[in-house]
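Journal club prep, notes for RB
We'll compare a predicted complex against what the paper describes. Inputs for the F0G case:
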Amino acid sequence: MDLPFIEPFKIKMVEKIHKSTRNEREKWIKEAGYNLFNLKSDQVIIDLLTDSGTGAMSDRQWGALMTGDESYAGSASFFRLKDAVKDITGFEYVLPTHQGRAAENVLFSALLKEGDIVPGNSHFDTTRGHIEFRKAMPVDCTIDIASDPTAWHPFKGNVDIDKLENVIKRNDVKKIPCIVITITNNKAGGQPVSMANLREVKQVADKYGIPVFFDSARFAENAYFIKIREEGLSDKDMREIISEMFSYADGMTMSSKKDAIVNMGGFIGFRDKELYNKASVYNIMFEGYVTYGGMSGRDMETLATGLYEGTDFSYLESRVRQVEYLGTMMKQKGVPLLEPFGGHAVFIDAGRFLPYVPKEEFVAQTVAIELYIEGGIRASEIGTLMSDRDPETRENRYPKLELVRLAVPRRVYTDNHMEYTAATTARVFERRDSIKRGFRIVHEAPIMRHFTVKLEKL
Ligand code: F0G
């Protein structure tokens, strides 16, 4: 008999969870304008709002923190970070930034101008925001099957190569300064992109002379899926897979708050010195000098260490398995989910969960609020609220899928917490027929409204 699977780590420090009552939660969420971002963290029992910056650092990372070199220029910690990035991704030139969206801001300042087109798979909302803010246009070329929540495909994050090539052919190539591939594809449900697809994208891009950038927040989870799902690659080790993945990119933006398991940080990796030089000017303006760019020396140390830990196979195996464990329990209770489960999160298909709530009343948000009231679970809405309004017509954009994301922080929760989460979801699902109305907006910002929106119960 095989012994059971165990996590490849043990716990040295713990943090108290504040348990609350249902009555308290009903009051708090109303005071929060039915916006989960407005809750205080101690009003939440299990926080699955995001896997970003919420991971637990290791003893080695905390140790590395003490060795940070806080020199303004030429910090030794920067060079340790630069070496780690080069070693793992192959990119020669590195600009640190304070997080992923800052990397996008710097890179797109150097690359984009009004009227440009940026094709890719699904752009994350900050990426889309930074593109649209420059009056350029992101084009989502994800394969069609990604919008079918129950269809099984091992690499549902893939780019549809025909769609991509059509976008390029139908437009002036000079207006396409780059292609952005998000690994894993967060907006499509944390779905991976295959090695074969990355290779094909690069072939098309090379044919037209367009650089490819990876939005690499969850590149290690992507590599793990390649190893376990893609034919012919299971014998390769993680580092070989990662090197090959990045060999198909000209550069990367990184939100280190995900797969590098740090609480804050980001960077840009470049192959091209000229582009690095151009972006450096914006980095200095927006982030900080090129050898710290918004990060302290100690944070660059924990990031350099975290890059190695986050790309370790046994860690990734326990990580992805825990997400799968949560998804499997929810599925067994009949909860409609997006499948296969993502690398960092399980996504509830809110449209099937609450079929009576009209789409104008924010179906996914309604599910997320019910999960909070039922068991103090904080999830995030990836539906109409997040899709925001069309910048031209100001009409609501209704996405193909109304999703609620349960994103699992790295090395933070135990499987008992996952069981509690699944049970909470099942309880809401059992009383789904009594939920017929959703919410109405009473206040919203002109862009990225979901962060600050205030709602009223209908
Ligand atoms: N790209 C992807 C794919 C992301 O998921 C995120 C952040 C970013 C870029 C931006 O990075 O937060 O460091 O500025 N995603 C978080 C999430 C917020 O919850 O999925 P950032």
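Talking point for the session: Residues 122 and 187 are 6 Å apart (CA to CA).
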